[in-house]
Amino acid sequence: MTDSPADLVITGCTALVHDDEERIGFEENATIVVRGGVIESLTAADPPPAVEHIDARGQVALPGLVNCHTHAPMVALRGVAEDLPTEEWFNDVVWPVESNLIERDVELGAWLACAEMIRGGVTCFADHYFSMDAVAAVVEECGIRAHLGEAYFSSQGPQGREKSLEFALRHRGGAAGRITTALAPHAPYTVDDADLAATAELARAHGLPVHLHAAENRDQADTSLERHGVTPVEVLARTGILDTDVLIAHGTGILDRDLPVLAAAGGRVSVATAPRGYLKFAWPTTTPVRALRDLGIPVGLATDGAASNNSLDVWESMALTALIQKSTTGDPRWLTSRQALHHATLQSARAVGLGDTLGTLAPGRRADIVLVDLSGPHTQPVHDLAATLVHSARSSDVRTTIVDGRVLMRDRELLTIDVPGVVRELGERMPALLDRSHGGRIQEYDT
Ligand SMILES: [Zn+2]
């Protein structure tokens, strides 16, 4: 096997690595050898013969970023509902517009979203939306990795839940293993207890994880307590969702009384944080990253959909997470740049259930790699490489994005997506998509 050339070698880079205690370090002048979509070695040795060679001198190699919670097709709604409180954002704009969505809109949105993410160094995203067959087809074609779930509300009746299961079973392991799947109830305020309990049963029966919104903000937690006497996290516990491998989006409304409930969870709980939206909606709290760390719960980085976040820029989520943690804890020593990079790498991989295959550049891991150019004036000089990456570099400094050893962007050029064609057709769809004269909406926001 070693007689045949490697598929890809990357030479001359500085590689972000983790030691046995998961501390982040940097390996200078590294040679990364990729074979069969997997990292074969990361050493200082001379490169072996290879089909493809990338000279990455002056660049930093990182594990590809993971967007742990998004609604990729919502890039089509980027900027349509601005400067509004959460309730008006959902009820007056987003949910009425979403009632116009056809599968082609979802597909075009997914193409645009994947282009934006690949350009920003994202190699995997966890998506939670409707018409997800269209998203899976885009993932298959464009070469990115994804963790996909067909979202549903109880207002759809049992068909919603059944469709989510059917999607998860049909696409699990799709796109040559790049697609993993989850059951995707929308949230405890739109999916009732009976449906959540049935979902937990299905998850256990089929070995599927669950991805949902919960305790998104403090209002939801307070309303849940007033109406039902329990918090959203306690709802997840009593319906059995916490006994599954569950990815909770946001959790800014997680209360102190929820912490022992999360600690006692029988499954594997993780949380995705998407801080830009919390700032934009003026939510009073953020994801309790420090308390979750103390419970050993991974917190992955996310953007949520672009209708609230305006971008799918995980790089920005990393910097904002570090800054908001410092601000909300009043402690400049919490969250350091190295901790932020730990969230961006291993914790994000764990959050989407891929902690054993992604998240670190090491032999045996999938070759999801991004190369970052730090030669720009805004990143020089480099005194502390972790700080440069988190607080000075930008997603636009990513030069090359690789998934499963396949180059999807080389020197900023996308190799698998026709962005002008997608933008043109999406533009033609806009009048029909934005029409709200029908007065309908797909769901009501009433926590
Ligand atoms: Zn969301």
Give short descriptive properties of this protein.
18 strands; 447 residues; five-stranded parallel beta sheet; single chain; nine-stranded mixed beta sheet; TIM Barrel; 37% helix; alpha/beta; 2 domains
Task: Explain what you see.
The chain is an alpha/beta fold and 447 residues long. It folds into two domains: 6-63 and 360-414, Urease, subunit C, domain 1; 65-351, TIM Barrel, CATH 3.20.20.140. It contains 15 helices and 18 strands. Strands 1, 2, 3, 4, 5, 15, 16, 17 and 18 form a nine-stranded mixed sheet that branches. Strand 17 and strand 18 form a beta hairpin. Helix 2 crosses helix 15 (419-434), helix 4 (158-171) runs parallel beside helix 5 (193-206) and helix 12 (314-329) crosses helix 13. The radius of gyration is 21 Å and the shape is globular. The termini are far apart. 54% of the residues are buried. The mean pLDDT is 97. The structure holds zinc ion. Zinc ion (ZN) binds at residues 69, 71, 213, 249, 304.
